[in-house]
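Page 42, continued from yesterday. The earlier attempt failed because a stray header line got pasted into the input along with the sequence. Redoing it now with the clean sequence only.
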Amino acid sequence: MVKPGQELMIADYFMFVYDDCDDILTTVDIAEMTGLNRSTVLKLAQKGQIKSIANSPKYLIPKKYLMEFVVTQRFIEARTNSECVCQVKNVAFGHKKV
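This time it went through. C-alpha cells are written below.
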C-alpha cells in the first residue's frame, strides 16, 4: 500500500528525467520511458487507465496524463524493464537502497 507522499518520489523522477520530452507522447514513447511492455501500455490506454486525447489505432497521450498514471497503484505495482524506474520505486517504498 502506498503511503501519502511516497508516490511523489516517482512523480518527481519522471518530471525531472523527462522534462525535455515532447508534451504529447505515443504508446511507444511511454513504453520506453516506463519500461512497461508496449502491449501493456496499449491495453492501459484502451481501458482508460492511461488517459489519452486520441484513440485507436494511435493513442496520443499528453505527458501530464503520464505523470498522473505513474503515481497510481496500478503503475507502482507493475513490472517494469527499466532498472532506473525499479530503483526509484524501491527507494520510494523502502524495499532496498540504490
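Notes: Residues 6-92 form a domain with the Multidrug-efflux Transporter Regulator; Chain: A; Domain 2 fold (CATH 1.10.1660).
Reminder to self: strip header lines before submitting.
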